[in-house]
Design goal:
98 residues; 2 helices; 29% helix
């Protein structure tokens, strides 16, 4: 029998030139996508960190780690939104149950 809900972690890197208001708006936007069909356990903002290699000619990024529980369709939708957002440089969603 398939799992109804699973535990996930989403790590995404926002562009460092965003203002604090823009960062807060993006974090809330991604959080609301998950909360529509799941529950967010924790949103941990790591802040600006140096990247290991340049991405889009940038050497810094604003890291955010979000832990949540949701059905399998939610991470797919969240990943789609990460990909079309101009403010997201990189993202990764991992299922913690496996």
């Amino acid at each position: 029998m398939a799992k109804i809900n699973a535990n996930y972690e989403a790590l995404y890197i926002l562009k460092p030139d965003l203002t604090e208001e823009q960062i807060a708006a993006q974090v809330e936007r991604f959080k609301s996508v998950v909360e529509a069909n799941g529950t967010v356990s924790e949103v941990n903002e790591w802040g600006k960190r140096r990247l290991a290699y340049p991405i889009q000619d940038l050497m810094e990024g604003y890291y955010v780690l979000m832990t949540f529980t949701a059905a399998a369709a939610v991470p797919a939708e969240l990943d789609r939104i990460f990909r079309i957002s101009d403010s997201v440089m990189r993202s990764m969603i991992v299922c913690k149950d496996e």
